[in-house]
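From the pipeline queue, job 12 of 40. The input is one protein chain; the requested action is below.

Action: predict structure.
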Amino acid sequence: MSTHARRPRTTRRGLRALVLTSAPALALLTAPAYADVPEGWGGATEVNNLDALHAFGIYVGAPLVLFLLIVLAVYLPAMVRGEKLLPDHSTGEGQWIGGPRQGVAELPAPDGEDSRAGGASGRW
């Protein structure tokens, strides 16, 4: 064999060895950061107690105030314009979507007692 055929194999082995040894070498070269703890952080033995009223204000009062602000932001402009806020269901006719255009006048009348023409029926 010539040296030309061996060269890629040795190059691949060398690259493989370099990759496999570089990760552990970099891990060994890292060192912990030697930084001082900021003043007031180290050795703090103070315990901040939260009384019940303060906790109620944070966990119930603040979300309630936020909810009320959002409701006002949504409804206040409509109220200023004089719009109705609730839908009025008393007016208007029922709509038959996909039904005959003339209403029930186009429906065929029942021929006899056993006829199914004329719309829905129910028997118990």
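Job complete. The chain has a mean pLDDT of 77.
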